[in-house]
UniProtKB/TrEMBL annotation:
The lineage of its organism: Bacteria, Bacillati, Actinomycetota, Actinomycetes, Kitasatosporales. It comes from the Bacteria. Keywords: DNA-binding, Transcription, Transcription regulation. The keyword Signal does not apply. Belongs to the LysR transcriptional regulatory family. This is LysR family transcriptional regulator. CDD domains: PBP2_LTTR_aromatics_like. It comes from Streptomyces canarius.
Amino acid sequence: MERDELVCFLLLAEELHFGRTADRMRLSRARVSQLVRRLERRVGAPLFIRTSRRVALTSLGRQLRADLEPHHRAIEAALERAAATARGIDTVLHVGFPNPLTGEIVMKTTEALRASHPGLAVEICEVPLADPYGQLRKGEFDLQIAELPVREEDLGEGPTLLAEERVLAVGSAHPLAARDAVSLEDLADVPLLTIIGDVPEYWLAHHLPAHTPSGRPIARGPGMTTMQEALMLVAAGKGAVLAPAHTALYHARPGVAYVPFTDAEPTGYGLVWRAGHTTGAVRAFVSAAREVARSMARPAPGHRAPRN
C-alpha cells in the first residue's frame, strides 16, 4: 500500500465525505476517488458504500481501518519525534482554551508532550468569551482550542478534535426546565442572553440564533461577558443560554436547569493559530491533541440540576 492510499483511506474513513477529504489532502475529489478505487482493487473488495446522500464504511473497511489506524498513528508520531529532535524544539508554547472541557484536553496534551518533547514547555490561559480571537491575533497565544465554526481569513485551522451535544441552560422556575428535552422551536418561548464583545456575526448566528427553524423570532435577553455572569442571569430568570453539554457537569448550580436538545447541531472544537505561524511546536501540539481527544469519552448529554 502506498502512503497516499493509506492517508486517503484513513481520512475518508474519518470524514465520510469526499469533498472534505479532498480539502484536507489538498487534492481534487477525482483524485481522492481514484486513490480509493486503486486501494479497493488492491484489496479485492469495496471498502466504502457510496450513495448520492452518504458515504459509509463496509464491514471490510471498518476492519481495515481498525487494523491500520494504530500503526499509522505510531508511524506519524515516530516521524514527528524524529523531526522534532532534528529541529531541536525547545521553546514555550502559549495555548488558550475556552471552557473546562477544552482545558482538560490542553492539560492532558501538555502531559503527553512532556514525554515526547521534554524541551517544549506549555503555558495555558483561558480565552475570554467576549473576545475569542483577540489574544491569538496579538501573539499572546501561539494557538488555541476554539468552538467551531471558525471562518477567520488570518487564522489557520486544524482538524476538529471532538464534538458534544448542546443543552439549554434555563432558570429552574421556567416551564421549559420541567421538560425532559427541548427543541430549537422552544427557543421562541424564552429570551437568549447575548454576548457583549468582539464576537463574529457568523459565530453569533450559529450559537445564538435569531429565529427558530420555522421562522419564529427568538427574543434577546441581557448581555453577558463570561459564563459565570451568564449563569447568574439565568438563575435570576433573565433568559437562557445554549451551552455545550459539559456545562451541566462543570457548572451545576442552584436555580439553573440544563435540558438537552433533540435537534440542535453539536458543538465542535478545533485548534486554530495565526496563519503563517505553523511552527514545529504547533505541529507537535496539534498531533498530540488529536490523540488526546480520541482517547476522551464524549460528555454525557446535559441533565437538569436539582431544583431549589
